[in-house]
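Saturday, quiet lab. Running sequence design on the structure tokens for the scaffold JK sent over.
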């Protein structure tokens, strides 16, 4: 047994446990679902870079505006989908926590292990642990906000970011969720034998991390600029 496996097993469910295999599959399935959603979500959000009207049209499309006589979407769609994603996050976190170091001795073993070897997958796992810990507190806040206040649009979203200071949350959430998701998708691909070319896949993951961080940062800055120009009370955007 390699040193990586020994440390990993010390902070996880015993391999012989009947629940372990099912939990692994459930963790991978929910991880793929969340990682895929992140890729789509960040590109939908980045439509703000094309202008207010472009973002407005994307929102109406996603909220089922084609089924409305007025062309306006239904915010209840955002609310229901946010509830669904919260449930997926809870399931994913529940099965992932069994591998999280919970004792001081486990953290010491992990730190000793990290310092003694230069194994890229071990370091990737470590950063996934750290980012997962951050997400454990930030993702529910974001989703509860969308559940309680599902109204979105160029002005309303900018109001949330700028006037409600949500940029503080997103500034921490963005790097954590991107790193966690891309490393997670990489590890799932390796774990289930989707590819054996780890070096090439790691490069893809790094490129995606840099790309998504740039995309997300640009979108966040756009919302800040839009929000800074809005008067109070903020009026929803209406295309001309």
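Result came back. Writing it out in full:
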């Amino acid at each position: 047994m390699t040193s990586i496996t020994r440390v990993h097993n010390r902070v996880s469910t015993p391999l012989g446990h009947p629940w372990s295999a099912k939990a692994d599959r459930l963790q991978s399935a929910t991880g793929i679902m969340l990682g895929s959603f992140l890729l789509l979500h960040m590109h939908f959000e980045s439509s703000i870079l094309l202008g207010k009207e472009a973002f407005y049209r994307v929102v109406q499309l996603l909220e089922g505006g084609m089924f409305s006589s007025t062309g306006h979407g239904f915010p209840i769609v955002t609310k229901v989908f946010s509830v669904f994603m919260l449930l997926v996050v809870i399931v994913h976190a529940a099965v992932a926590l069994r591998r999280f170091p919970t004792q001081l001795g486990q953290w010491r073993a992990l730190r000793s292990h990290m310092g003694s070897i230069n194994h890229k997958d071990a370091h990737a796992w470590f950063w996934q642990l750290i980012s997962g810990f951050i997400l454990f507190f930030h993702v529910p806040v974001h989703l509860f906000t969308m559940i309680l206040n599902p109204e979105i649009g160029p002005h309303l979203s900018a109001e949330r970011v700028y006037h409600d200071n949500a940029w503080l949350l997103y500034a921490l959430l963005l790097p954590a969720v991107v790193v966690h998701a891309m490393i997670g998708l990489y590890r799932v691909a390796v774990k289930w034998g989707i590819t054996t070319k780890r070096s090439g896949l790691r490069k893809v993951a790094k490129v995606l991390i840099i790309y998504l961080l740039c995309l997300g940062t640009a979108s966040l800055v756009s919302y800040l600029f839009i929000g800074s120009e809005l008067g109070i009370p903020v009026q929803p955007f209406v295309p001309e």
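Notes for JK: The mean pLDDT is 86. The radius of gyration is 20 Å. Ask whether to fix the surface positions before the next round.
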